[in-house]
Amino acid sequence: MKTVKVSLKERSYKIIIKNNIFEDVAYYHFSKHKKSRAIIITDKNVAKYYIKNFVSFFNKYKSETLVVVIKPGEKSKDLLIVKKIIEKLLNSNIKRNDVIYALGGGVVGDFSGFLASIILRGIKFIQVPTTLLSQVDSSVGGKTGVNTKTGKNLIGSFYQPSAVFIDPNTLRSLPQKEFLAGYSEVLKYSIINDKKFFLWLDLNYKKIISKNSKIMTEIIANCCKKKAIIVKKDEKELNYRMLLNLGHTFAHAIEKELNYKVKHGEAVSVGLLMAMKLSVLLEKTNCINFNLIKVHMKKLNLPTTLNCLNPNQKWNAKSLIRNMQSDKKKVDKNIKFILLNDIGKAYIENHVSNEKIQLTIKEFF
Ligand code: GLY
Hints:
By secondary structure, the protein is α/β, with parallel strands linked by helices. It has helices at residues 22-32, 44-60, 79-91, 106-118, 132-138, 176-193, 195-203, 205-209, 213-233, 248-257, 264-281, 287-299, 306-309, 317-325, 354-362; strands at 2-6, 13-17, 38-43, 65-70, 99-104, 125-129, 143-146, 155-158, 163-166, 337-342, 345-349. It has two domains: 2-173, 3-Layer(aba) Sandwich (Rossmann fold), CATH 3.40.50.1970; 181-362, Dehydroquinate synthase-like - alpha domain (Dehydroquinate synthase-like, alpha domain). A hairpin with an 8-residue loop joins strand 7 and strand 8 (155-158). It has a seven-stranded mixed beta sheet with strand order 1-2-9-6-5-3-4, with helices on both faces. Bound molecules: glycine (GLY). Glycine binds at residues 137, 141, 143, 237, 241, 244.
């Protein structure tokens, strides 16, 4: 078992990483919220594998449960669906001391966290992430939200969970493509501020591909530790937390261009490499670093070009740049980029010419 603390004064919480953790979650509810109902929000795919087992432990401790199953996928991150589920919970007489458990990936976590932050002016919620992406990134740090036609997560809140319970064993039921897409976020942490971690990941790539339990526990704990430090310093993303958006300015533009018919983690993979390439073009870092990352991505079968994401798309640099202009992270007319001086040395760059951005994108057609 590994524990990581997210220190945010009265909103501090623990992340617990342990195989077969479901009974611990139910025991936590029994010991802390005995008189409350456990509202479990999950999606159809996750429910198929885990809901029976998960609920059985709450039954064992005689805790009352209510299960809400949403459709898998980004389409569920919709204000109207949040409203529908809120009406359902209000009709079932939800109380302010009831606790929401988000059992699933990033969509379930973002959706449930947002719902928890507004229902009855906010009730407690616990993250139980079951995908690699949600275990290393989205379940930690309190970003919640739903999508709009203009873009992803444009309606939302910063609302911290009361605890995060991570079971690395749940990765076994995850399709390999989804697992590897989530791995892009792991790689992101190493590129931001830990070259040693990157070299260790590279050394262990075969064990990563086979989802080796010891290695995955190590990776999840390390990423959560890194995220906890960043969130403690800058919870509301005023500056330092922006480093976590490495590769994401490009990735969000790519996702929008493909009408979100691409895995977020796969777009992040190409986005990371684009950020690296832009750093090379601006002479901030060298080609050796770019190639180290690219070769590592290829070993893990991660996409490294736009055509890998969709060979039928007519890619257009200007259109991708337009998409970047509408990113919510933009605070003035300049597009912010997270760039690299080295692997493990990321920084925020406010001034990049459109010409250099175009040149970068065109290298990935
Ligand atoms: N996923 C980036 C962040 O939580 O800030």
